[in-house]
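Support reply, case 0932

Customer input (verbatim):
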Amino acid sequence: MANDSGLPNPDAAANVRAVSPEVVAAAVQILRSGGLVVFPTDTVYGVGVALSRLDAVQKVYALKGRDRSKPLQVLLADPADAIGVAADLSPLAQMAVNRLLPGPVTLVVKNGQLVDRQVVAGGETVGIRVPDAAVCRALVAALGEPIAATSANRSGEPSPVTAEAAAAAIGGGVDLILDAGACPAGRESTVIDLTGAAPRVLRWGALGKAELEATLGCAVE
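Our regenerated output:
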């Protein structure tokens, strides 16, 4: 279990569990009670909390030493859920959702009423993710609400691509780590701003420029 300081401890590996239906069910209960869970995605391992647990959101920032001006991502179980998170999906944003999700991207759209401003660092936009990772999506679906998440590392350190690396980085500050092996992409998601007239990449990651432009059918900045 997490210690009071949120710092890793020698028995951090004890929190690592191979993925099974029972372990996913346990993770759901932890999230509902305000706990922190580490899980695999298609890019890197993430640490997340139930979106409605704002007390737990603050734990994520403290654990990572994350700048409060940097928002968390919002993980969804299905691309169709994006309409419930965004204030409004422009034709461009809807096309991106349809063509890129599930996948190794974060789509930045205008924030609606569902996501509290504490999750998005007080901003007017929200980054949504639907990872192409069955375990992650099953966890969100079983929870019944989105997960507020970020990479399972200390801020400024490499993002972990295995459960063991996540445990070494922040394992002593979380309640459970779901182990499903190495993440296939092995690098962070590509972050795409869809709030303007044309898509604009804020961070290149697992999805490259050529593939992104081919999928969207347009040039990207």
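We compared this against your earlier run and they match. Two observations from our side: Confidence is low (pLDDT under 50) at residues 3-10. The first helix runs from residue 21 to 32. Please reopen the case if you see a mismatch on your end.
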